[in-house]
Amino acid sequence: MSVKKDIKRAIYPGTFDPITNGHLDIIKRACKMFDEIIVAVATSESKKPKFDLEKRIEMLQAVTSDFPKIRVISFSSLLVDLSDELDSNIIIRGLRAVSDFEYELQMGYANASLKKELETIYLMPSLEHAFVSSSVVRSILHFNGKIDHLVPFEAHKLIQGYR
User: Is 115 a catalytic residue?
Assistant: First the structure.
């Protein structure tokens, strides 16, 4: 008799414009907690991302290629609809500062109001990555500044080729 194991699957949604060392830190730590992590890249047309969706997915796939628990997808729907589609009721979000907390708390409550089974787990990046955000990286890129210490090596190579 075989016992069917329930897979602990979590969704890590974001724009990832671009992926940072802080994002990667969250991914690595989430891999210790879940059987599968689906990194869901939001189209986020309203945010007018610097990198197109295909480039953001390419960066994430390059950075996570050695992580067997990671699957990278894109989405342009409500997160609760995506969670139904992927059969996952766990959302992972990163928190760096108090300002993140307020926004993430509102989003977590909004998602829970749409689907009560949905749980949001908040992870803080390691202290060394606490100040890193995609918007900081984009600002530095705007002035052709040095970002190799802020983004994973594989992403940095792709960003250099994209410029």
Answer: no
